[in-house]
Design goal:
The structure is a single chain. The protein is 11% helix and 34% strand. It is mainly beta. The strands form two sheets. Strands 3, 4, 5, 6, 9, 10 and 11 form a seven-stranded mixed beta sheet that branches. 36% of the residues are buried.
């Protein structure tokens, strides 16, 4: 599942792909985007914005009534609408050019770079809200949704992000919960290319 992204396409191209207004953003190319950093997000009003990747579920509880403490960067699509930890979140689009996965033992891991065969952007299904902290702090935050893997990535990870087709953007953003749930499926086999990543691509971290 997505643990790091890369996005090198111009912001204007991303906006066009999403059918959205760029919202005044003009982001530089980024080859290694980590949780906790700001990422581009497509909002229901079809405008781009920036949010921190990782939802802090302050004030939310799990099924046992205990506070959810960890920052959530990926949420399981199968249960996201049923968990109280995600009450009140809204749906959004998370555009990237691709993501990285790692396999192998610690200190001997192999990094893999995953992108669309066609070269067009990957658009993950996302959820977002705004965290309100002390002193009037306001922090928009986002997480991506995951599902079972397609055959393309099954050998390197047991989960993958929910990837949306352009014709489904509107349904995900503003459709009913039942309509949105139907979109949370693995991408069609053969749609992704998986290549070994160079350390220069992801920073060697």
């Amino acid at each position: 599942m997505p643990g790091r992204f890369f996005l090198t396409s111009p912001t204007t191209e991303i906006a066009t792909h999403l059918g959205a207004d760029a919202g005044g953003l003009n982001e530089p190319p980024r080859s290694n985007i980590s949780p906790g950093q700001d990422i581009i997000v497509g909002l229901p009003k079809r405008v781009l914005s920036k949010m921190r990747w990782g939802i802090i579920p302050v004030g939310r509880v799990n099924a046992r009534g205990r506070p959810v403490m960890e920052t959530v960067i990926n949420a399981r699509s199968e249960t996201v609408f049923a968990k109280s930890a995600f009450d009140g979140v809204r749906r959004c689009l998370v555009p990237v050019d691709g993501w990285y996965e790692w396999t192998g033992e610690k200190r001997h891991k192999t990094a893999w770079r995953i992108a669309r065969v066609t070269g067009e952007p990957i658009v993950f299904a996302g959820i977002y809200d705004v965290w309100h902290g002390p002193g009037g702090t306001r922090l928009p935050q986002v997480a991506t949704l995951t599902c079972a893997p397609s055959a393309d990535v099954r050998d390197i990870h047991h989960r993958m992000g929910v990837i949306l087709a352009p014709e489904d953007f509107g349904t995900w953003l503003t459709g009913s919960q039942d309509q949105a749930s139907l979109l949370m499926q693995p991408l069609t086999d053969g749609s992704l290319v998986v290549e070994e990543a160079r350390k220069v691509d992801w920073g060697g971290a």
